[in-house]
Amino acid sequence: MSEAAPEPGSAPSLTEALWPDPPRTKRGPKPRLTRDEIVSAAAATADTDGIDAVTMQRVADVLGVAKMSLYRYVPGKTELVALALDHALGNPPALRSGPWRDRLRGWAIELHRRMSAHPWSLDITVGTRIPGPHELAWFEEGLLALRETPLDGSQRLDVLAMLTFHVRGSAQQKSGSDRPEAELAELLGPILATHSDRFPETAAAFADRVDGARRDDAFSFGLDRILDGVATLTAE
Amino acid sequence: MSEAAPEPGSAPSLTEALWPDPPRTKRGPKPRLTRDEIVSAAAATADTDGIDAVTMQRVADVLGVAKMSLYRYVPGKTELVALALDHALGNPPALRSGPWRDRLRGWAIELHRRMSAHPWSLDITVGTRIPGPHELAWFEEGLLALRETPLDGSQRLDVLAMLTFHVRGSAQQKSGSDRPEAELAELLGPILATHSDRFPETAAAFADRVDGARRDDAFSFGLDRILDGVATLTAE
DNA sequence: CTTAATTGCGTCCATTAGACGCTTTTAAAA
DNA sequence: TTTTAAAAGCGTCTAATGGACGCAATTAAG
User: Which segments does the entry list as coiled coil (chains A, B) (predicted)?
Assistant: First the structure.
């Protein structure tokens, strides 16, 4: 929430933070750190102990510097976290052949894998954000896959948004546990048992799921449904 | 993160908080507040000033009591927020007739409306949560709509999850602004202009969207795609 | 060699959520 | 009616947080 612009620039600091300009004057002491070191440290901390463990103090400790030193490299915590997110996302896989459906499927699966690997990324991708370079690269890659379809640009964006929502939602559900559905069912069990009269369908559906010993593949189920839906549209 | 159980119950406090038991011994001074008053105050505060404005202090001020008094009604802030969410969600609409597709569509649209009306609800529905009574009621309603389909319980749950993800994601994007896409395009404009060589497809797609003067209906676009996909499955 | 930009960071502050324990209220038990 | 103990209200205190500010040390440009 602070402005770190040395010049009277009009862009918000978040944009500047994510899309930095190289200008490097050569006066003054040499920086002891790199912005990238800080971002990596923040991401690593989030990976091991969750996003709440990422405090300026802790990141500074990891790097062996004082807390306030970080502010020479990063305008604030918000920006640091945004950078860590883009760092965790990384570059999209480049699959430039095959039919759009397979490509898009691979795209979504890989995105899901990345986000699941950094569950904290889900906690912070909230609201209208400014995408970082890697995030935009993912978008670009997804749009490339849709190029052979008759969809217009707007529809293509909508398709990617839809896929992103599904990836995010699915990854979110499984964050923190590797058998999320079983866990949820366990949590819900007592509640449903107590109020089975109020929620008969829900109780039945969960019983069904447990009996069927289904694995956690709500993600791919939904993914296929979505791709079916898009296919229906492109076929028109 | 604290345990408020008067008895040595084994359930986590969140469950107890969301699914309270009426036991009301009649000793001691009469409570000056209701849990519901507190929850309403918290939700109202979040509605007007965002989730960050919801502090125990502020809620207490609104109600004219001391901060620590709230802890007699609510185990902690986490639980208060969970309660506020369920409060904001409210009961699902009861549309018990018509084909499953229309019912599900109405269900999703209404859910979208509610969540958009309380944008803060999106910031806090993260990870595996314990659903409150209202949330479960929505689930129940959604499952009811799917009863006429040949899908099994597990698939029905997956469909609802998918829809929920889409609703959440869409509502999230538009939180904080009523023309989110235009806003995003504005934010992205300078970036894309600067790096149009790296993101040609993205630039083109956004240009397409702006030219087409499309309104913000990524939500219903995706919703129809999803329902198409489900229809494909049920038709098999 | 002088100068000015730039770094590292110590100090300070405002805000949080929450623990703990005291006092007061009030219904149940004697 | 008196005694008793459960429960409510909440003042006080603590630890953690993000961040403003300004000073001293560093180092390249002039």
Answer: none
Q: Name the residue among A153, A131, A82, A206 with its Cα closest to residue B213.
A: A153
pLDDT of B27 strictly over 90:
no
Q: Exposed/middle/buried for B213, CB within 10 Å: 0-12, 13-18, 19+? A: exposed
Q: How many distinct helices (H) and strands (E) make up chain A?
A: 11, 0
Residues 105-144 of B with CB under 8 A from A: 119, 122-123, 126-128, 130-131, 136-137, 139-140, 143-144
pLDDT surpasses 80 at A208 = no
**What's the CA gap between A70 and A84, in Å, rounded?**
14
CB B145 within 7 Å, strand C: no
The residue to which tokens 């405090």 are assigned: A55
Question: Tokens 């849990």 identify what position?
Answer: B35
Distance, CA of B183 to CA of A96 (rounded, Å): 31
User: Domains of chain A (ranges plus CATH)?
Assistant: 11-88 (1.10.10.60), 91-178+216-235 (1.10.357.10)
Token pair belonging to B201: 């497809």
The bases of strand D with some atom under 7 A from any protein CB are: 5-12, 16-22, 25-29
Three-class SS of residue B139?
Answer: helix
Q: Scan for tokens 């519901």, then name that residue.
A: B36
Establish if B154 touches chain A: CB-CB under 8 angstroms.
yes
Interface probe for A, chosen from B14, B21, B128 (most Cβ of A below 10 Å), is B128
What's the helix, strand, coil split of chain B in %, to 5? 65, 0, 35
Q: Averaged over A56-70, what is the pLDDT?
A: 96
Output the pLDDT for position B66: 94
Query: Per-residue pLDDT for B138 more than 80?
Result: yes
Q: What is the pLDDT of residues A82-141, one digit of tens each?
A: 999 999 999 999 877 899 999 999 999 999 999 999 989 888 876 667 888 899 999 999
- Which residue type sits at A113? R
Instruction: Tell me which residue in B156, B207, B232 faces A205 most closely, judged by beta carbons.
Output: B156
With CA of A68 and C1' of each nucleotide, the nearest comes out as C9
CA distance A38 to A42: 6
Q: Is residue A158 packed enough to be buried (19+ CB in 10 Å), middle (13-18) or exposed (0-12)? A: buried
Place of tokens 């379809």: A149
